[in-house]
Amino acid sequence: MKPMTDESSPLTIRRSAQQTLYSCLDSGLRLLHPFMPFVTEELWQRLPRRPNDSTPSIMLSSYPVFVSPLNENQHQVLKQQLQDDSFVFVEAEKEFDLVFSTLKTGRSLAASYNLQTDFQRTCCDSSCFHANPNAGGACSIFSHPDPE
To answer: Whole-angstrom Cα distance, residue 94 to residue 88?
Structure first.
């Protein structure tokens, strides 16, 4: 972004970069506004308005809406490409399922025994990794925090 806004860049490139940055800031602030109303209102008020925008407050501005630039045919092509096997990671899914089921089981056990909620997840010792080298970082247990 910085090279595009430098004084040595052509005017059209600088204007394009500035308009893109403005659009990103404006949309980002509108998206954040429900969660951080005071901060986003203050920042939005400091942004200069575009000539055709007379909205007095971010509260009155419209929430950003996604409009797809693709037509129906392009959507179908994209959908077929995403179903391609090159986008499927079977091993990663298995590893994630192992982690997820381990966490789910640990939470279920902790809840059934009314254990405190200040448990931390710690990785198993190195023997776990030697016993199952395919587990990677997927082996986790629940334990009490170590006393200091």
So the answer is: 12
